Amino acid sequence: MPDDDQTSMAHAMAPPHVPALPLTLRINGSDHQLMVEPRVSLLDALRERLHLTGTKKGCDRGQCGACTVLVDGQRINSCLTLAVMHDGREITTVEGIGQEGAPHPVQTAFMDHDGFQCGYCTPGQICSTVALLRELAEGQASSVTQGERPVAFSEDEIRERMSGNLCRCGAYQNIVAAIRTAVGA
């Protein structure tokens, strides 16, 4: 194929330029003004634009939970949502869970029970656990609960509620122990 044909084919296959949009992300209690293309994921905005690298990019397909953050208190996979969808909403990353010198009880429980090995999944596990504690306090049902009120707290309940967060090292036993302690705290 001649070079001119290859060039025109490459131009035809290139995605069109999409103008950046103004956006205010309220992250860990602070507003951040950004200009982002509409197709930028929340994960990429956090890591690449705001340099909040605690939230990890694992599978980038919503299957591992390493990118879990809280939006208005609800846990989400930040790789599966667009940053522009969260304009003005309250986003909490692992950096906003505790404070330096004063870790959140979930963070303390993870440290006390060695609820991590390599640590790559830990930020997502911690954010998900914070949401789990809120869900339990509100009496939200899970598939294990089967309509019981109040929600009975058990290891099966923990495992079900944390099933979206994978640990490739297999530290699940310690993670469950950490969560049991955090529920008591």
From TrEMBL:
Residues 21-97 form the 2Fe-2S ferredoxin-type domain. InterPro entries: 2Fe-2S-bd (IPR002888), 2Fe-2S-bd_dom_sf (IPR036884), 2Fe-2S_ferredoxin-like_sf (IPR036010), 2Fe-2S_ferredoxin-type (IPR001041), 2Fe2S_fd_BS (IPR006058), Aldehyde_Oxdr_Iron-Sulfur (IPR052914), Beta-grasp_dom_sf (IPR012675). It holds the Pfam family Fer2_2. Keywords: Iron, Metal-binding, Oxidoreductase. The keyword Zinc does not apply. It comes from the Bacteria. PROSITE patterns: 2FE2S_FER_1, 2FE2S_FER_2. The keyword Oxidoreductase applies. Gene3D superfamilies: 3.10.20.30, [2Fe-2S]-binding domain (1.10.150.120). PANTHER family: OXIDOREDUCTASE WITH IRON-SULFUR SUBUNIT, OXIDOREDUCTASE, IRON-SULPHUR BINDING SUBUNIT-RELATED-RELATED. This is (2Fe-2S)-binding protein.
